[in-house]
Amino acid sequence: MIASSVLAVAENPPPYLSVGVFSVSVPNAIIIGVMLALFVLAIVVPFPKDKDQS
Amino acid sequence: MTMTDPETSTSAAENDMWTAKLRRSWEKNLPPDKLLPDRQPAYVASWIYVFGVATIAALVVVFASGLVLTLEGPSWYHVSSVGLFVNSLHFWSVQLFFIFMVVHLWGKFWMAAWRGRRAMTWITGVVCFLGSVGTAFTGYLIQSNFDSQWIASEAKDGLNAVGIGAFFDTENYGQALLLHVAFLPLVVGFIVIIHVLLVRKHGVVPPLDYAESAAGQEAAAAANAEVSN
C-alpha cells in the first residue's frame, strides 16, 4: 500500500506555474499566497482595543 | 569562593569574580521590569507585532511533538494511529512555524527593525531562520520513507555541487538523525532565547513614522542615555 501511494505521488506530480526561468508548484504558490495575504491583513485589520482604553 | 561577613562591604577581589560581573551585567541589561514587562507601547497594538510570539508558540508545539516522536520512534509513529497523529502534528506545526516566521521577517524587514542598537536582534533572527531551514531539511531526511530517500538522493547532488558533500552527507541517515533530534534543536533553541532576551533588552522596535515623531525622538534619546550610563 505504501509503495503504491508513493508511485501515485511520483506519477501525479503537482501542476507547475512557469514564467520564463521562474517555476513554482501550485501548492507552494498557494503557501506563498497565504503568507502574503496574512502579511497584508496583519497591517490593515485593526487590532482589538483594550477594554480599559476609551 | 570567598566567605565574608554580610555586614561588611564587598572586597575588590569579590567584585572581580565572574559571578559578580555576570550578575551586575544581567541586572543592568535585563532588570525584572524589562524581562517581564506588564505594559507595552501603544504602537505594539497591531497584528503585525503578533507574529513573533506566534512563531514561538508554534516552536513550542514543534519541540513537544518532536520530543514524543524521539521517545517513541518510527516503529510507533509510522504505524499506530496516535503515532501518525503526533507525526502529523509535528509536520503541520513546522509549516505554521515557518509561515509565522516569514510574516514576522517581512514585518521586521519593512520597518527596518535593526534601528536603535537592534542589529544583534536582527542578526540572531537571521541565524534562527537559517538554523530552522537546516533543522527542517534534516527532518525531511529522517522521515524513513520513500519521500526522504528521494529528497536525500536529489539533495546529495546539490550539496556535492557546492562543495559541502564531504562534511554533510544527506544519505548518512545517522548523521541526519542526530543533527535533527539533538544538535540543531539545541542551536535553534539557544539562539531563540538570545533573540527574545535581546528584544526584552532593547524593547520592541517602533514603527518608522513613530520613530520620526517628536515622541519617538524623545524615547530614542532616553534609551541612548540609559545605554551610556
Description:
The complex is a heterodimer of chains A (54) and B (229). With 54 residues, chain A is α+β, with helices and mostly antiparallel strands. Chain A has a domain at 10-44. Chain A is 54% helix and 15% strand. Chain A has a two-stranded antiparallel ribbon. In chain A, strand 1 and strand 2 form a beta hairpin. The mean pLDDT of chain A is 82. Chain B is an all-alpha fold. Chain B has a single domain, classed as Up-down Bundle (Cytochrome Bc1 Complex, Chain C). Chain B contains eleven helices and no strands. Chain B is globular and about 60 Å long. The relative contact order of chain B is 0.10. Classes of the chains: A alpha+beta (54), B mainly alpha (229). The interface between A and B is medium-sized, with 16 and 15 residues.
Strand and helix layout:
The complex is a heterodimer of chains A (54) and B (229).
Chain A: H1 2-11, E1 16-19, E2 22-25, H2 26-44
Antiparallel strand pairs in A: 1-2
Chain B: H1 12-15, H2 18-29, H3 32-35, H4 51-72, H5 74-77, H6 81-110, H7 119-141, H8 146-161, H9 173-202, H10 208-212, H11 214-228
Beta-strand portion of chain B reads under 5%
User: What is the total tally of β strands of chain B?
Assistant: 0
Series of H and E elements of chain B: HHHHHHHHHHH
Instruction: Quote the distance from N terminus to C terminus of chain A.
Output: 61 Å
Radius of gyration of chain A, in Å, reads 20 Å
Query: CATH class of chain B, anyone?
Result: Mainly Alpha
CATH fourth-tier homologous superfamily of chain B: Cytochrome Bc1 Complex, Chain C
Taking all residues together, what is the mean pLDDT of chain B?
90
Greatest interface and its participating residue counts: A-B, 16 and 15 residues
Structural class of chain B: mainly alpha
The number of helical runs of chain A is 2
What is the mean pLDDT of chain A? 82
Shape verdict of chain A: elongated
Kindly report the spatial arrangement of strands forming the biggest sheet of chain A: 1-2
Sheet having the most strands of chain B: none
The low-confidence parts of chain B are none
How many helical elements of chain B? 11
| Count of structural domains of chain B | 1
Number of β-strand runs of chain A: 2
